[in-house]
Amino acid sequence: MALHLGAEAKPCKPSGKVKVKGKGVPNCPDCCEKDKYYNTYTCSPKVSAQTKAVLTITSFDDDKGPSTCEGKFYPDDTPVVALSTGWFDKQKRCLKNVIIYGNGKNVTAKVVDECDSTMGCDDEHFYLPPCGKNILDASRGVWKALGVPKKDWGEMDIYWSDA
């Protein structure tokens, strides 16, 4: 007789789509493309002891505005992250630590912001696409602590967990 441990968790499926509002930004390789639709998400995959994610890079010390959790900026060498909307969980992970595993190392980083998975492609979001459902948008300090060569900074598959 098979042991049934309950229903599998529902997969996180797109909740909608967005496209560029207005003219967009010409000659911007990271910006939304005119007439292309981008998925939005209100969910993220279930968090476990080893949650798969994609590590991306951002600055928390620039003109994109202060962090959501404390309303302040962070030096680029400080290990801080923004989580996809579902994982950010309406600010419930604000100022909590997460452990990021990648490149054979790990680092503890503080959650200071949301990587918005529900909106994008507009002036408020700098014409960038919505964040994916499984993103940890990290400072340079996180990438350095993981020992990733600078030439490889940008996007990397990782695991993470709550600290």
TrEMBL record:
Gene source species: Perilla frutescens var. hirtella
Entry's localization field: Secreted
Gene3D superfamilies per UniProt: RlpA-like domain
Keywords: Secreted, Signal
Domain of life the protein comes from: Eukaryota
Family: Belongs to the kiwellin family.
InterPro entries per record: Kiwellin-like, RlpA-like_sf
A Pfam family assignment: KWL1
Keyword Protease: no
GO CC annotations, alphabetized: extracellular region
Descriptive protein name: Uncharacterized protein
Signal among keywords: yes
